[in-house]
Amino acid sequence: MADYVVRVGDREFRVAVAEESGGLKVTVRDEVFFIDFARLEAEPRLSLILKAGPGAAGGVSVEVVRDERGRLYPGGIPLDTEVLAARLAALEQVRRGAEAGSGRPVEVKAPMPGLVVRVGAEPGQAVRRGHVLVVLQAMKMENELSAPRDGTVRDVRVRPGQAVDHGEVLAVLE
Amino acid sequence: MNGIFSRVLIANRGEIAVRVIRACRDLGISPVAVYSEVDRQALHVRLADEAYLLGPAPARESYLNIERIIELAHQAGAEAIHPGYGFLSENAEFAEACARAGIVFIGPPPEALRAAGEKTAAKELARRVGVPLVPGSDGPVSDEEALWIAGQIGYPVVIKAAAGGGGKGMRIVRSPNELPSALRLARSEALSAFGDDSVYIEKYIDPARHVEVQVLCDAHGKCIHLGERECSIQRRYQKLIEESPSPIVDPALRAEMGEAALAIFRAAGYVNAGTCEFIVGPDRKFYFLEVNARIQVEHPVTEQVTGIDLVVEQIKLAAGYRLEYDQKDIIQRGWALECRVYAEDPDNNFLPSPGQVVALREPAGPGIRVDSGLYLGQRVTIDYDPMLSKVIAWGRDRREAIARMLRALDEYEVAGPKTTIPFHRAVLRDPRFQAGEFDTGYVARHWQGVPVPEDLLVKAAVAAAVDFHRRPKVVTGERPAAGQVQESPWKVAGRWAALRSR
């Protein structure tokens, strides 16, 4: 028997898994399933048959892609997923609590590789949510990246004409 | 076939290159592919009989490199070039270069391309033959002229790139103080997309529906139309869902729009396949928008309802064949829809979402057609347009076409880049869409992204937990007690890295 905290996107679920003679017994939110679990051999897919009882012949069939980074694609929708033993999750919670309320700065990152066409703010400038900070050209389109909240621009790390990578920090807001 | 080409070079990539390869095969023609360095593994390269390297990834050095493409056509012994859509498809200089090189350009003659494909020239043509135009500037405008004209015709107005299409360099402006920045953005986009920053301005019809008419003209003076396509579901002025027929077009309006389109194509001396785009206002009055002098992305919906293969027709018309149909032979049967699958995040403003395709399952079954360049392991890069594939559904009526499309979309799985598939699932289930009540503002007005259904989240959580539980555990340092769960080291490392960066 093991307790896990599973983060799927921005949601969190507690899932208990136990090895039983008929397969895996899984408890999630008061629901109990007996699961026939298979990892496909030639594809990065998981297949689960959720049965109501250990003796049941079958039940709900679930298939989900899992890439090598652990991201799941239920219904083809990519969701970052993380599984933690419940006790580690509790430790992390304590640590996070201590850091909360410090008003951490927000990093505005490039959502894809591209070319900076224009910069819409200077360090020290006060901006409202939605103010265009950087215009990034990629896939033939100009994409406006705007401030996710009100704040002051602490740092602008790119210049027009500069090529940036996916995830690169373009500006910092505080 | 008699006198048809034996070899055709396809100067394009992605799904349209695959589509043209299929048309070539149906005609017994040997297809020749060209590709850029990043497309070495692409489907069109592998499906063609021969494949030739163009050059580095940037389009200017590959799919837009006229000299290189013609040189390769000679090398391969191709008698004709099919340009697909985008890239060189509406480039009159390319059509002329083909002619000089003794190669047939599968598209309209250069003069017709100039007369119909360039927006301001096409408007002049429409005016001459009496097709109604949206009020606006007669041609490219300076910033000062734009301000003056906008004041005359009244806001909202729309700025468009004179040389462009596909919504690039296009901006809606609702008040005079928005105009300067909109002009700047439009010119900059137009310059980078088309190498020309000239823009024009016209009144913005609202609510508007986008309806276009497919036309075929042979080199012997016959022009027919194949009915309309409705393409009002758009984002950033780019089409996402198309259908034929249109829910708002009845036989009388169809005949009227068809005649208007034919008048323009005849006046342009047009040969080959082309489309006349119209805007239809709330009063069902229609206005000429532009001519697309090429095969269009959404051509399959017309093929599904008319039974005519438009790409095959293009090749035959370019070889000088006569049209085998009269207008009375064109009958629209049933209903067809198309959903475009883009590597874009519909939950984040449709921003491009590059990445590697790690799993793929394409839909099939009755009434479903998938035009796709996708393959497992494909790296979707930012070098080109992010459209990956198209799902086309046919049914006896609109309701059946929608039901089949939903079945196909639910089957369709592209894992890796985010795609527009969840967007399509939501729109096709929207009662407003099902009732045919929408306009070009639908996405901007109604689309807010869709939350992932709760049961999918629960199932994903269970799958993740079980997968983690059943993963071979790596023992490091002290041996775990019997039954104790050991974490894999990469997982722990990843998590602590994440904690440090907070």
Layout of strands and helices, then pairs:
The complex is a heterodimer of chains A (174) and B (502).
Chain A: E1 2-8, E2 11-20, E3 23-28, E4 31-39, E5 45-51, E6 60-66, E7 72-73, E8 81-85, H1 86-99, E9 106-109, E10 114-119, E11 126-127, E12 132-138, E13 141-146, E14 151-156, E15 163-164, E16 169-173
Chain B: E1 7-10, H1 14-26, E2 30-36, H2 43-47, E3 50-55, H3 66-76, E4 80-82, H4 92-100, E5 104-105, H5 110-117, H6 119-128, H7 143-153, E6 157-161, E7 171-173, H8 179-194, E8 199-203, E9 209-217, E10 223-235, E11 238-244, H9 251-267, E12 272-280, E13 286-292, H10 299-306, H11 310-318, E14 335-342, E15 344-345, E16 351-352, E17 355-356, E18 359-361, E19 368-372, E20 379-380, E21 387-395, H12 398-411, E22 413-415, H13 421-429, H14 431-434, H15 442-446, H16 454-469, H17 489-500
Parallel strand pairs in B: 1-2, 1-4, 2-3, 4-5
Antiparallel strand pairs in B: 6-7, 6-8, 9-10, 9-12, 10-11, 11-14, 12-13, 14-21, 15-16, 17-20, 18-22, 19-21
Helix pairs in contact in B: 4-5, 5-6, 12-13
Neighbour order of strands in the largest sheet of chain A:
7-6-5-4-3-2-1-8
Biggest β-sheet strands, sense, barrel of chain B:
8 strands, antiparallel
Q: Based on DSSP secondary structure assignment, what is the total number of beta strands of chain A?
A: 16
Instruction: Order the strands across the largest sheet of chain B as they lie in space.
Output: 13-12-9-10-11-14-21-19
- Average pLDDT reading of chain B: 91
Question: Using DSSP, what is the number of strands of chain B?
Answer: 22
Low-confidence stretches of chain B: 476-502
Architecture per CATH nomenclature, i.e. the level-2 architecture of the largest domain in chain A: 2-Layer Sandwich
Q: Roughly what percent helix of chain B?
A: 25-40%
